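lol ok so funny story. i was supposed to be doing the assay writeup but got distracted and ended up predicting the structure for this chain instead. priorities right. anyway since i did it might as well share w the group, maybe its usefull for someone
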Amino acid sequence: MKRTRLLSRTLLTAGLLFSCGALAAPAPRVPIDTYIARAWTTLTRSTSDCNSVVDPKLHTTPALYLPHGMPLPADLRTMQTHCKVDVRWLPRPITALGSFDGRSLPVQGLLYLPHPYVVPGGRFNEMYGWDSYFIELGLLADGRVHLARGIVENFLFEVQHYGGVLNANRTYYLTRSQPPFLAEMVRALLAAPGAFPSATAAHDWLAQAYPLLVRNYEIWTRPAHRAGTTGLARFWDYGGHGPVPEMDTPGYWRGIIRWLLVHPAQNRGYLVKAPLHPDAAQIAALARSSCNIAHSAACARAWYGGYRLSAKFYEGDRAMRESGFDTTFVFGPFGGSTAEYAPVGLNALLYRYETDLAHFAHELGQPAEAQQWTQAADARHAAIDKYLWHPRRGLYLDYDFASGKPAAYPFVSTFWPLWAGAASPAQARAVRDHLALFDRRGGLQTSPIRSGAQWDAPFGWAPTNWLAAKGLDDYGFTHAARRIARQFTATVRGVYDQQGAIYEKYDMLTASSDVKIKAGYTQNVVGFGWTNAAYLKLQQLLEPHPRASITRP
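and the output, tada:
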């Protein structure tokens, strides 16, 4: 009974950042900048705090895992006693992403990180891969340099001890990453005033970080992450077959089956005919063609109308979750074919990562390595132009390398090559000329297609609005960039003025937080880390500033 009361208090503490918590209804109402400043503190977590281990996505006893062989930090001794948290060690060293499957552990838990970090909010009570890049920018804009540096160093710790930047620091995320922003995070930190006591200290820190940046980059050049023979990368989860652990919701999977049965033309090999109660031979066959009913309760319950989802669908679903675009239909219905696409966004980020590595190698006095990274970036740039750029349409489009066709519709990541510096002036101008596909009253929607998924029309998100606005501004399209910035910040501010909260996503048609999601996560979470950050950065973009000259390929 005492343990139950303690866990309830822990959940209540963690609930301060959930949709029913303090951020949803601040009293009295404060200016939005003050709300954001306070939110950084409310959303800050540490793996020595009781409320950090709570996982709203799973109903399990809180557990915390340390890297194999790591001595128990002193602050965790106190946590063990005070929070009654089960502190464990990973059973072996992890040298590469996916080399260890966290699902094999007796209980899932939080992965230890040495520094405090900022969580997105709501059900996302851990440090996320690509969210944290935008959060870092927001922290730096708000003068929280020490906290920003700790987040970057946490990611370097993940690369060293967990095989790479993870989707988030939970054991069930040990098989996949997220869009690769780590090199850019390092570059932003190095440029931040006050991040290091001296230029020498910054140089020494970079020298230690550089090999870990290289190790994290190598995730994306492994065979499983290659998009066929295109020279481009794809998203991939090394977790094998079946439903992802964080979606232990049979109704979600059954809903997908129902949708596919109603829309048979959209079925790309996503369904397998199967009984609800298979015999032993059928269970063995389904472990290959669908998922392992004997080992996964979610898999066993994911049945409707005589069908189960195929192994191909689960493979695509897992890859889609690494993309961060969960859920969109741009990679097939419910993202079921994500593993068959070379995405614009991912490859633009990798181009930027390669140019950053070239810059770091040059700074560290390694000209030969700098040249190698420049050559890698040039090769990717050529592949982007060959497979992803469509001059007649004036857009970058994701490429289905399995069928040799572009995606059925454009996506907001078409602006990411501008942010990455991978577009020529003519390409950037053509993309700018197609803003009308995405531009709505509240900012940029993610696509022109209404699929019911949260990463399609009419919904818009902070990171995509920031990346598009920044990319357009970098290429000299100041009017368009500032219009996007004004529209999206007005949406965030208008909703805040009405409701006293900042949200995960917004409806771009109505410029409101009243989102009606039919596919994927239906909740609109309060917090919210990257929205807070993008608001600050877009406000900065709206301020008068001298333009730095840039050179683009």
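The chain has three domains: 2-219, 245-261+270-321+333-339, 341-542. The longest strand covers residues 63-66.
back to the writeup now i swear
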